[in-house]
Design goal:
Elements lengths: L1 H48 L6 E4 L2 E4 L2
Antiparallel strand pairs: 1-2
Length: 67
């Protein structure tokens, strides 16, 4: 009798594990993506605010100094 009750329990347990694991990974990666986007935007704004004389140009995937 106890073996018959274990079958539905394990089916429910396996379904719970599959759905909770998928949901856990989705939120974990979304938070890290949002954090990286915020870091990029903050760094980009800081670079825009710098007043650097642009003496460089790019040609054939190399950076050259114009001086």
């Amino acid at each position: 009798m106890s073996f018959i009750l274990l079958i539905p329990f394990f089916i429910f347990l396996i379904a719970f594990i599959i759905f909770s694991k998928r949901d856990l990974y989705a939120h974990e990666h979304e938070a890290s993506f949002n954090e990286e986007i915020e870091n990029f935007n903050a760094n980009f704004k800081a670079l825009e605010n710098l007043e650097i004389k642009n003496n460089y140009h790019i040609n054939n995937n190399h950076i050259y100094n114009n001086e």
